[in-house]
Structure prediction request, 100 residues.
Amino acid sequence: MFSFCIGHKNWHRDHLLRCLLSIDRMRAPGDEVIVCDLGSGRPLLEEVFSTASRRGARFVYSPAGDWSRAEALNRAASQAREPWLVLTDVDSLFPSHWCL
Prediction:
């Protein structure tokens, strides 16, 4: 089982949606997705939460002063339930033929 950990802050909601859709096409039942937002402003924060929730991803809001991809991924990974981690960001797309 895998935990897909996505870091986010003030980035386009449509990028997140495309990333989540690509993960949905290839992930196995039981795999989890965690989106960690390091402090997006409203209304984007509400859109990110809504997008993540609709796609079955867990949402972690953990505001930080500065953007740090590593910090966002580490905070998401700290919430993971599965032993295998896939660390990624909203610009990553996964091909449907890539099966774990």
Observations:
- The beta strands are 2-8, 32-37, 58-61, 84-89.
- The chain has a mean pLDDT of 91.
